[in-house]
From TrEMBL:
Keyword S-adenosyl-L-methionine: no
GO terms, molecular function: hydrolase activity; metal ion binding; nuclease activity
Subcellular location: Nucleus
Protein name: DDE Tnp4 domain-containing protein
GO CC, one annotated term: nucleus
Main localization category: nucleus
Residue span, DDE Tnp4 domain: 29-187
UniProt cofactor(s): a divalent metal cation
Keywords: Hydrolase, Metal-binding, Nuclease, Nucleus
Source organism: Pogonophryne albipinna
Record-stated family: Belongs to the HARBI1 family.
PANTHER family named among the record's database cross-references: PTHR22930, SIMILAR TO ENSANGP00000010363
Length: 213
């Protein structure tokens, strides 16, 4: 799956702002553990925090629940942050070579000056120049609580995308006994298919349900 180019990122950001009201957002990122049967002599490599063995599917999703970036094959013991750090996409995100659109002024927030285009993730991810996560802690100011709510709302697209993928393919709901390499290839193909097909009726229903709340 080719990584989006500048104009692709720009189009993703425009649609995410229109549908999810989060400006300068080029996608939501998350990781999903896909359960596997541990290979012989693999030790704790694939053993995750849920006490199962898994591969990590790391994905960036757009406003239509379509996969735009996929990295498959991270060891189950890795956190989402670790999976991102160990991926080629994570390296590009960190070194600024993703060809994201230039920093822009957000209408209504001119006082903040030029702001970068960003991905949104949960608290498992690091805070980077182009990756936002919620403010930590309980006793937050009103502004920070509103920000966290808006970020969590925009991040729902990746949770919905994983839900749609799991509902369509049984391999996401049961232990697979193929090798990790074959499992990774299958995951990549299925994610690529979800990234090239138009929104399904199921994804449109997800959108309608969320927007009606």
């Amino acid at each position: 799956m080719p990584v989006p180019q500048t104009e692709d990122w720009r189009a993703i950001a425009a649609e995410l702002q229109e549908r999810w009201n989060f400006p300068n957002c080029v996608g939501a990122i998350d990781g999903k553990h896909v359960v596997i049967q541990a290979p012989a002599n693999s030790g704790s490599l694939y053993f995750n925090y849920k006490s199962t063995h898994s591969l990590v599917l790391l994905a960036v999703v757009d406003a239509q629940y379509l996969f735009r970036v996929v990295d498959v094959g991270g060891f189950g013991r890795c956190s989402d942050s670790g999976s991102l750090q160990n991926s080629a996409f994570g390296e590009s995100l960190k070194d600024g070579s993703l060809q994201l659109p230039p920093d822009t002024v957000i209408p209504g927030a001119e006082r903040l000056g030029l702001l970068p285009h960003v991905l949104v993730g949960d608290e498992a991810f690091p805070l980077l120049d182009n990756l936002l996560r919620p403010f930590p802690g309980r006793h937050l100011t009103r502004e920070k609580r509103v920000f966290n709510y808006r970020l969590s709302w925009a991040r729902l697209v990746v949770e919905c995308a994983f839900g749609i993928l799991s509902s369509q393919w049984r391999m996401f709901r049961r232990v697979i006994t193929t090798s990790p390499e074959d499992k990774a290839k299958n995951l990549a193909v299925l994610s690529w298919e979800r990234g090239t097909m138009h929104s399904t009726e199921g994804s449109r229903t997800q959108q309608n349900n969320l927007e009606s709340k």
